[in-house]
What does this fold into?
Amino acid sequence: MSPETVVECAWCGEVIERADDPNAPADRVSHGVCLDCLGGLLDMPVTDMHALDSEDVNRLPFGLMELTRMGVVRRYNVTEAEMAGLAVDSVLGKDFFREVAPCTQATEFEDRWRELLASGGGDADFEFVFRFQRGHRLVRIRMIVEDDGDRNLILVQDLEVASRGESATDGLRSAS
Ligand SMILES: [Zn+2]
It folds into this structure.
């Protein structure tokens, strides 16, 4: 059997696409977003998270950030910025663990991240409480560390205000 590339939904893990990849050294998992998790945003599943343009990234029904191996924020969507009460520009290029959300320097967050990097990639799914000065947020986190280590994803959903998602994205749609 030749190696496969499997595209999984970054949020729920459902397999979106599966293809033989004779040139790949081994099976490989990449990430997109399934139709259900897009919540009506697009009418086709996303098969490459990194190919999403910034407009679509900003309209995703969950927070999304992309971090380098060093934890520097490369991408930070408006959904997360609104939930966190931070301006996107104030976060880009910053060290996430030290400058943006120091509360994540914890065993269940940054240590998990470091372990995934050290083990050559993988993912984790857990609940976490962001502790900001303006208040606490109970969130669900999906952490996806890629094998090359430089385009890693952290997906965030507020568990206490999960129903607020609709109005947040509606507002963005009318603003664009
Ligand atoms: Zn999904």
